Please model this.
Amino acid sequence: MLKKIDRTETAQLRAYLDSRSAEISEEILLAASRIIEDVRKRGDKACKEYTAKFDGIQIDDFRVSEEEIDEAIKKCDPFFMESMKKAKQNIEFFHRAQVQNSYIQQKEYGIFLGQRVIPLESAGIYVPGGRAQYPSSVLMNAIPAHVAGVKRIVMVTPPSKEGGINPNIAFAARLAGVTEIYKIGGAQAIAALAYGTESIPAVDKIVGPGNIYVAAAKKLVYGKVDIDMIAGPSEILVIADEKADPAFVAADLLSQAEHDPMASAILLTTSEELCEKVNVQLRIQTDVLPKRAIVEASLRNYGTSIICNTIEECIDFSNAIAPEHLELMVSDPMPYLNRVRNAGSVFLGYYTCESIGDYFGGTNHVLPTSGTARFSSALGVDAFIKKSSFLYYTEEALKAYGDHIVSMAEEEQLQAHANAAKVRMK
Model:
């Protein structure tokens, strides 16, 4: 079920994968732009009209009350709640290690300089509605913000047909430290978070996945607010040696293929025999999956295998592809880890399936896609902070170095810059 390609065709493979992530069409960008401008002008009134139009329900008050959250949580499965609590502990444990400290440095003549690490005042989290509900994504987006010290963590999510909120989403929000929840979705929710309305105050940054209109809206409001990324289809690349269990390999490839017909599942291995056994397992395991049609389309279009001479060669090809998820399914993975340069998240060994990272292990599952792991990182605490430098010069210090400052300013023909130093040196 995986198309076998030659090792010399990896450049073509990267281009083929990139074709999944075509630019958002002008038509969708224009539609999202109109909604954003309408929300900017008419605020809550426009939001209510779009909610009625797209979600089929009238909402009088977008804010979800504590009583609503309490009632929703009562419907949650107790074991699920316990699982989420344990996952939260793991996610917090991982992300607390990312916290950075401010610093100050002393120099000659009484000079001191340094950097302050400051959390954003507010962050907005978009949580999709509809059939797919992802409470794990609430944890992954909100917990790093909470650990960073963000005071206002605002969640927006489309209302249910009854005008309520999904119980699991409500529980995840409370567990993760979300401070406000609003029942609103689509491009209008992004506009409200970016520009504010009468009832929904604006935020500094917007994170979280959504449909193509949400993605378009995030792209359009960037600059007014920060955003996390414009995510493409999901990706997994498995590097497996001859000792890997083909059932494990197939299961992990399928775990991403079920996301989307455009998701990619790639196997790099040194064993022709393993590749053949994985294809057998893919057929067996696909037959019993509820999302069989999606899986088959994904594997048909973007399922690929490459036979390499060595594991090192596998990793070199993986670096060229820069996958979202990379599994090193080899007997001794740690010696190879430093060779990996481009990957959103790396999963080591035979028993670390990517699902652990998606839900429970602690690492973040909001990852760069479409080859952007070459230059970008997983969502984390860094996404919710800003850094501000500071500098202090004494009179003695300015007199010691003022001529250098004047020289550089005058060479750039910025006389006022030079004069700002000169007037202090007299």
